[in-house]
Design goal:
Blueprint: H1 8-14, H2 16-21, E1 23-27, H3 41-44, H4 49-58, H5 66-75, E2 80-86, H6 112-122, E3 126-132, H7 164-181, E4 187-191, H8 204-214, E5 219-220, E6 268-273, H9 290-302, E7 305-311, H10 321-337, E8 355-360, E9 363-368, E10 376-377, E11 386-391, E12 414-415, E13 429-435
Parallel strand pairs: 1-2, 1-7, 2-3, 3-4, 4-5, 6-7
Antiparallel strand pairs: 8-9, 9-13, 10-12, 11-13
The structure holds alpha-D-glucopyranose.
Alpha-D-glucopyranose binds near residues 28 and 271.
Length: about 450
């Protein structure tokens, strides 16, 4: 009988840096950057392996400069970076001894994971690797009638001779390589479980036990159990030995805070693309403006979550120009207002009409997305508990007006932002409210 018990204390210690960090960069990169129609191109277009191999023979990202990537992430205010070590197409960005289908065997000839990790660590960032549980290259992974495999509709790709346990040896062996040969990993981002392919189908208990023996502090996502759909066993109040350490809503911010059945706030991270593709897509110019992404990062934090914002580098190893601009725009705001993000979370106050509230210890951060007519009502504050109100970006005092306009609402603390109807920062003007130490 397995004696495994969930240890909440060590779990909470393990995730502490992560819930302080709040903001990270996701990177989806690989052969699919050459067809440049997103990372699912093989599956969506039913591309046979032999028609995908020219991309392998060609892959040579001559502009790949991981130090530049890491510097852009850091300057955007991100505290961690997660790179695809292997995506669903099975192509490995690292020098695995278990396959020839890897970056070191392409004209590129480089161990991209190692260079990425070195560069991110040099910038003082935490590092994570995404590893796909699916593998459309490996002969022992189910093909015909699988839900997603590119050859799922091709009877000639039947599964009689495929040995899934041999595939699991490969999967576990590669995870062991990543956990043994690349230094301290801070996050392992598995992706994804579907149908009956979940949990012990991946031999998840053995896998996580091995991972934790090699990387005892690593944080693991919930996709050995679920995908973006579903929450996982810890969230549901009955953690399994392979429970995810965080819930991973994808392309959506949960409408409300996430809590377990006992009402404990859950650790969660919303992963978001800047346009509509994880991998590089040459025609997808539907990029979210930095103003929108700033407000969505604030929304995640106000609900107790992180944001993992994705960049899909192109086949030469460059970030799309739009992504560079977006990161610069976010970084400008973060430089002035990062204190209202890092280590912050839910305030316990009602969401104000004008924006959102984040909180840390005895500080509340009122994020004003749209100005009010008249002074700003900081509903929920008790004036007796107030130490000060400051504009976070320059530290200047914000006065509390006492006049006939606010006199009708004696229980509400108002903030006077002055005569200019245009906010100091039209994207998000942050007031730092310090409460008296109790
Ligand atoms: C989905 C997609 C995958 C992407 C992941 C990011 O699982 O299948 O392509 O890597 O979302 O969360």
């Amino acid at each position: 009988m397995n004696s495994w018990q969930f240890d909440r204390k060590s779990y909470e210690k393990r995730v502490q840096w992560y819930t302080q960090a709040r903001f990270g960069m996701f990177l989806h990169w690989g052969l699919y950057a050459i067809p440049a129609r997103g990372e699912w191109v093989r599956s969506i277009e039913r591309i046979p392996k032999e028609e995908y191999m020219p991309f392998f023979r060609e892959f040579n990202p001559v502009d790949f400069d991981p130090a530049k990537w890491a510097s852009m992430a850091k300057n955007a205010g991100m505290k961690y970076m997660v790179l695809t070590a292997k995506h669903h197409d099975g192509f490995c960005l690292f020098d695995s001894a278990l396959t020839d289908f890897k970056s070191t065997n392409t004209p590129c000839g480089r161990d991209l994971v190692r260079e990425f990790l070195d560069a991110a660590r040099a910038e003082g960032l935490k590092t994570g690797l995404y590893y796909s549980l699916l593998d459309w290259y490996h002969e022992d992974y189910p093909h015909y009638k699988d839900m997603h495999h590119p050859m799922r509709e091709n009877p000639a790709c039947s599964n009689e001779k495929r040995d899934f346990s041999r595939y699991l040896d490969y999967l576990h062996g590669q995870v062991r390589e990543l956990c043994s040969n690349y230094g301290k990993l801070d996050i392992l981002w598995f992706d994804f479980s579907y149908g009956d392919m979940r949990g012990e189908k991946w031999k998840a208990e053995e896998l996580v036990s091995m991972v934790r023996s090699l990387q005892p502090d690593v944080i693991i996502d919930n996709r050995l159990e679920v995908s973006g759909e579903g929450f996982g066993s810890l969230a549901e109040g009955h953690p399994t030995p392979w429970h995810g350490d965080f819930v991973s809503p994808e392309q959506i911010i949960p409408p409300e805070e996430l809590r377990d059945p006992d009402g404990r706030p859950l650790v969660w991270e919303c992963c978001v693309t800047m346009n509509n593709n994880w991998g590089y897509h040459a025609q997808d110019h539907y990029f979210k403006p930095s103003s929108m992404l700033i407000r969505k990062l604030v929304e995640c934090v106000s609900k107790g979550g992180n944001m993992l914002l994705n960049v899909g580098p192109d086949a030469r190893g460059n970030f799309p120009e739009e992504s560079v601009r977006i990161l610069e725009g976010i970084g400008k705001w973060m430089k002035m207002n990062g204190k209202s993000i890092y280590g912050c979370g839910m305030s316990g106050l009602p969401k104000p009409d004008f924006g959102r509230i984040t909180a840390k210890d005895n500080r509340l951060y009122f994020h004003i997305f749209e100005n009010t007519i008249g002074p700003v009502p900081l509903t929920g504050l008790n004036e007796e508990e107030l130490e000060s109100i400051r504009l976070l970006s320059d530290g200047h005092e914000i006065r509390i007006p006492k006049n006939w306009i606010t006199g009708n609402y004696p229980g509400i603390v108002f903030a006077d932002l002055g005569p200019d109807p245009v906010l100091p920062d039209p994207v998000d003007t942050v007031l730092e409210v310090t409460l008296k130490e109790k």
